[in-house]
Amino acid sequence: MPYTTKANIPEGFTDLSEKLEPYESPVMDAVEQDQKERVHYPSLYFQNAEALKSLPKEGTAVIHFKKVMEKTVTQEINGKSETKHCVELQINGIKAGEANESSNESNKPDDDDAIEKGLEAASQSSTDKD
Fold first, then answer.
1. How many helices (H) and strands (E) does the chain have?
2. 88 inside domain
3. In terms of Cα–Cα distance, which of 100, 114, 95 is closest to 58?
4. What is the pLDDT at residue 114?
5. What mean pLDDT is reported for the chain?
């Protein structure tokens, strides 16, 4: 769910939220107030990631990544020029940190196993390309 209200992120983290501008449409007037308070966060999607089943609902994690694409795009939207910076990361491994207080501590993952499996998958993927 990338569109949500502003998150309370821990100190030292970079806030990646992007404020959503309300739509300019008579149909959207009823929800305009709600949309003024909404933000968009980028998301990571993992497929076939059995090692991540035990991640808590919310917490911190360290990722090992490789930047595979980076670009700056400028678009004309409703007569306004908008510039956005895009980055694609290959996620090679993840190591869960602390669960937030609201998370269940029994869901704490085996950190070493999770990052090792992610690194093994990345290594196998790069071997398959050769």
1. 2, 5
2. yes
3. 100
4. 61
5. 75
Q: Are residues 89 and 32 in the same domain?
A: no
Residue 65 in domain: yes
Asked if the structure places residue 110 within a domain, the reply is: yes
**Domain assignment of residue 79, given as a range:** 55-130
Condensed to tens digits (0 to 9), the pLDDT of residues 56-94 reads 888 898 999 999 999 999 989 888 898 888 889 888 888
CA distance 117 to 130: 20
CB 3 within 8 A of CB 40: yes
Q: Are both 26 and 82 inside the same structural domain?
A: no
Q: Are residues 36 and 70 in the same domain?
A: no
Its pTM surpasses 0.85? no
Provide the pairing of β-strand 80-99 with 59-77.
antiparallel
| pLDDT, tens digit, 9 for 90 and up, residues 32-56 | 555 557 888 888 888 878 888 888 8
Same domain for 83 and 37, yes or no, is no
Q: Is residue 50 part of a domain?
A: no
pLDDT score of 107 more than 50: no
Phi, psi for 71 (deg, rounded to 5)? -155, 160
At position 102, the amino acid (one-letter code) is S
